[in-house]
Amino acid sequence: MKDLVILGAGTAGTMMLNKLYKLLDKNEWKITIVDNEKNHYYQPGFLFIPFGVYTKKDVVKPKKQFFPGEHEMIESEIFKVLPEFNKVHLNNGIILDYDILIIATGSRTAPEETEGLKDKLWYKDIFDFYTLEGALALAEKFKKWNGGKLVVNITEMPIKCPVAPLEFAFLADAFFEDKRIREKVQITYVTPLAEAFTKHKCSEVLGHFLDDKGIELEAEFNIARIDNENKKLISWDEREIDFDLLVTVPVNKGADYIEASGLGDELNFVPTDKHTLQSLQHKNIFVIGDASNIPASKAGSVAHFASEILTENILSYINAMPLAAKFDGHANCFIESGHGRAFLIDFNYDVEPLPGKFPLAHLGPFSLLKESRTNHIGKLMFKWTYWNLLLKGKELPVGSAMSLDGKILDNQQIKEQFITDTQQIQKLSGGI
To answer: What is the pTM of this model?
Structure first.
């Protein structure tokens, strides 16, 4: 009997468990999944909690509800991986042997990495919404807050769901309009990026939206510390931004055991082949979701698309075949813009977000790089899809690779795509 061990039972780990359970011979392979949490959290829903759209019960369910029958679940923190011995040491004293290891332990917020962030104002006038505790605390704060300087701040990239801070700013604008105190709230969006978002095409659209909504953009702000006494964000170049209420996205890091195991970079993300999803250091270790350092968004859609590729490559690895399946960095994200409307973007490693229709060419029903009511409905409907289809490893009507069908390309993009396609054809044909 051979052992396949999955570290992490979040979105990516649960999907891989369900997919591989269906495909691996149970007489040959034992699958073990390790996680320290009994509950599964629908993290995209955290965004809506401060605004009273979702409650705790909407985003929390028991993990065992999404697991298949014959597997072993171990509830424990992970102490260390010893890749040279193919072993995982758990905090509860159990030592697991593995033939194949899948790292799917995601990322966590690390407010302690920024001086003054988790200090006396934490969960009083400084909040995050990337944790359930932070989102719930902020919801209570918003019930009694009557205005002032609201700062939405990204501490450092990369972060989970890079569009979420923008969504928060847009939803805050609408929320305070509905409360009829928008004129009393000054909203400032503070980012270390040179523009509003990581993708330029999207930033052109969303940056314009910030202006229209009266949200001030402070770009290239690299935060050094928080002054709790005077309520200021202070950058490394000594720029200062005042706040009455700070909503922050702290530094995101991989799990601590990754550092202890010598498997990660300076932020504990695992160096990973961006196409095959195989560890760059160890051939029998694969990485999926936010735990990797691949240059794709740390978002649930990326984990979903990558799971299709990783499943194929693990089967190839088991059969001593080349890892032929290649992940293209495909991601798509709904972006809430307030008042029951949203955008949708679809992109990959090489292609910026484009206008058009999704997922069906010319039919949609969703519009790309365009605000619509339908996109907002799609975002809300995704919660049902997540709980009932995605986590259980079921097929969804969207391929793992990004498609250009339904997308509108300008002349330069058509030329670049033609060159890319030609190069790929030449490579496949041996350069002829």
So the answer is: 0.92
